[in-house]
Amino acid sequence: MLKIPTTIQEVINTITESGFEAYLVGGAVRDTIIGKESKDYDICTNMPLNMIKELYPNFHLMKPNNNRNTGIMRINNLEIEISTYKGKSIQEDLSNRDFTINAIALDKNGNLIDPFNGQESLLKKEITLIDKTGKALEEDPLRILRGIRIAARMNFEIDKNTHQQMEQKAIYLKYVAPERIYRELIQILVTDNPAYYIRNNIIILFQIFPELAPMKDFKQHNPWHIYDVLEHTLKVLENTPRNVFLRMAALFHDSGKPEKFFIGQDNKGHFYGHPEASEEIFKKVAERLKMDKKTKVLVSKLIRQHDMTLPTNPEKIYEFLHLHGFDYTLMLIELKRADNKGQNPELANPVLEQLSILEEEYKQYILRFNNLQINSSKIAELGFQKKRIKIILDDVTKSIVIKALPNEEQSIIEYINSKYKK
User: Fold this and answer.
1) Residues 152/191, Cβ–Cβ less than 8 Å
2) 24 near 42, Cβ under 8 Å?
3) Which of 23, 96, 213, 399 is a good FRET partner for 266, with 20 to 30 A between their CA atoms?
4) How many Å apart are CA 365 and CA 403, to the nearest integer?
5) Angle, to 10 degrees, between the axis of helix 386-401 and the axis of helix 314-324?
6) Cβ proximity of 419 and 399 under 8 Å
7) Which DSSP helix (H) or strand (E) runs through 157?
8) Predicted local confidence at residue 172, as pLDDT
9) Nearest to 94 by CA among 127, 68, 120, 70
10) Long-range interactions of 12-20: CB distance < 8 A, separation 24+
11) What is the mean pLDDT of each run of 10 residues along the chain (422 residues)?
């Protein structure tokens, strides 16, 4: 017998005391079995949802999902999704689900209903289809990506037959709304090891992103690179922090290389202009998947600038930070670090050492930016008009950040008075 959280238990009891059935299903059951805390809970019932609305005024109906009527509410900071049976009973409902680990329910007493041995799959850490023919994947092809996402989130393997069915049915992903594909993709990208699951499911990924297919087995013919373009990309992805913008940029940062490749007079492979070509490829994908504006703009910029040489001159560093912002600059450094880690270590390691030194220097600049001993109010107190305050503040900020002026109030005031009170 497994323990159901008190708030969820109360909702289930309210439904069953009204003469209907109610079961805890979905991810929360998986989490309960493996002893993990869950934040989102799914309840399946034969109670009409309009009656649940009467019991819980904050219950809101959603668009039907996979031919299932669903609504959602929040109680005690828990998000609770309630749906009606797909079929006439909980057993029939479970048989209509995709993977065995998703076809487990808990009754009001905490007893498991597990007709397809989902608990065994959990113990084996395996994603397995209920129907070996893959019919569920044809009914809703998004389940292919959902299976990969669940495997990546839980560090599970995908059963051999299930994987074969996923690859065979991946062609149907073209019928799935792009927004739904994008939501699954970003959840895969922020798991512990997305590169592992993308590498193992690359045929499926190519159905979503045919633009990435030319990278596979594309030799770079350059001493800096010991991997083909695709494997290099996955190595970069392995080395990026858990940040969806960085990881999306890592996935596409070299997608333009096959298009730009040529052998130079030095008999080495070169890819001049590949950041811009890669950016254009990403932009087309972003439009197709209806990505949000922030992702499109930020990832495009990271891809475009990933191969640039960062400034080392104090004034140029100041200008770069002032123009691009602190968070973006540190993110770009992370992408450059990951990019170098995906190259030939004999050549890349010295570059990585230099990059770490430069990163620390940039962080010192940012620290000085954030700890200025002057502001517009203090400048106004010195008697300057509003139109001059910004000019003075920008000048003083730059002087302090590049260490041309001590970050001490008295020194700053003396500097301002000597330069601007003439």
Assistant:
1) yes
2) yes
3) 213
4) 9
5) 130
6) no
7) strand 157-158
8) 96
9) 68
10) 12/43, 12/108, 13/108, 14/55, 15/43, 15/45, 15/47, 15/52, 15/55, 16/108, 18/47, 18/51, 18/55, 20/45, 20/46, 20/47
11) 89 96 94 85 95 94 76 93 94 95 95 95 96 94 97 96 98 95 97 97 96 96 96 98 97 97 94 97 97 97 97 96 96 98 95 96 95 91 87 93 93 90 70
Do residues 222 and 178 make contact, with C-beta atoms less than 8 angstroms apart? no
Segment 91-114, tens digit of pLDDT: 999 999 999 999 999 999 999 999
What is the Cα–Cα distance from 75 to 22, expressed in whole angstroms? 17
Question: What is the Cα–Cα distance from 9 to 110, expressed in whole angstroms?
Answer: 9
- Strand spans (E) along 230-350: 262-263, 269-270
Entry field: residues in the chain:
422
Rounded alpha-carbon distances, angstroms, from residue 216 to 90, 180, 195, 264: 45, 26, 14, 22
45 by DSSP, 3-state: which? strand
CA–CA separation, 374 vs 367, rounded Å? Answer: 14
SS (H, E, C) 107-156: CCCCCEECCCCHHHHHHHCEECECCCCCHHHHHCCHHHHHHHHHHHHHCC
The residue whose two tokens read 């079995």 is 33
pLDDT (0 to 100) of residue 407: 93
pLDDT of residue 64: 67
pLDDT value, residue 421: 79
Tokens of 217: 């087995």
CB 249 within 8 A of CB 267: no
Contacts of 197 (CB under 8 A, 6+ apart): 148, 151, 152, 188, 191
**Residue 422 confidence (pLDDT):** 61
Residue 263, phi then psi, degrees to nearest 5: -95, 120
d(CA 194, CA 185): 10
